[in-house]
Design goal:
This protein is mostly helical. It contains nine helices and no strands. It has helices at 6-33, 39-50, 55-73, 80-103, 109-133, 139-150, 156-179, 191-217, 219-222. Helix 1 runs parallel beside helix 4. The longest helix has 28 residues, at 6-33. It is globular and about 45 Å long.
Length: 223
């Protein structure tokens, strides 16, 4: 398959944009479920509690810092999707959360569980489009890839576990520093964090095989 084929390139751009936008919506569901978020969002939640600026703007600032890391050490992983993620995901997540808070200001436990399941399903579906498009990775993903593949320090899966753990620990620490209390820690880490750690990979792979790749390549090419 030629990635510069006009049809495929347009599809890849479309898949990247759709994937990032839907990921942002999923983050809103994760945050409103209040059962914990994925590791990078744990870090962002901690920073959000500590730094008094809008989440969307904070997300851009943090990702620009991570982008500079990639530009210095290996630009290979930076592409159009990286910038779509950088400038759109935070604001979409902020809009998604505020919309849910407006319509469901104090959701019952069963609704929070539903929001968590929606968040997990949607972020895995969206990630399958984003990854299959292969037009760059998020600035956070690039960090582990550079440490593993460029610096050859360790295998990616182990580096990713370490970076994820650092994000969760830092997120919890920043949250406690900002609030001085344990109440509300579910916004940073919880059952949702654990579920994504164990199920996100297989679900992303499922959606890649069943939806994202057939969409990109066309049914005729998959037969």
């Amino acid at each position: 398959m030629n990635i510069f084929n006009k049809d495929h390139f347009v599809k890849r751009c479309l898949m990247s944009a759709i994937g990032v936008l839907i990921c942002g919506i999923a983050v809103g569901f994760f945050k409103h479920a209040f059962f914990g978020v994925d590791p990078f969002q744990s870090l962002m939640a901690g920073l959000d509690a500590l730094i008094p600026i809008k989440f969307g703007t904070l997300y851009v600032i943090v990702n620009i810092i991570l982008l500079l890391f990639s530009l210095v050490f290996d630009r290979h992983y930076i592409g159009p999707a990286t910038f779509i993620n950088l400038f759109l995901l935070g604001y979409v997540a902020q809009f998604s959360l505020e919309t849910l808070q407006h319509f469901f200001p104090a959701p019952a436990l069963y609704l929070r569980a539903i929001f968590l399941l929606i968040g997990i399903g949607v972020i895995c579906f969206a990630s399958s489009f984003y990854i299959t498009a292969d037009l760059g990775v998020s600035t956070y993903d690039a960090v582990a890839l550079i440490i593993s593949n460029t610096w050859h320090i360790w295998q990616f899966k182990f580096i990713r576990i370490i970076t994820d753990a650092i994000c969760v620990v830092a997120g919890v620490g920043l949250f406690l520093l900002a609030t001085k209390k344990i109440d509300g820690i579910q916004a940073v880490v919880g059952i949702g964090t654990i579920i994504t750690a164990f199920f996100m990979g297989p679900l992303v792979d499922f959606f890649q095989v069943k939806v994202a790749r057939p969409f990109l390549e066309g049914k005729s090419e998959n037969k």
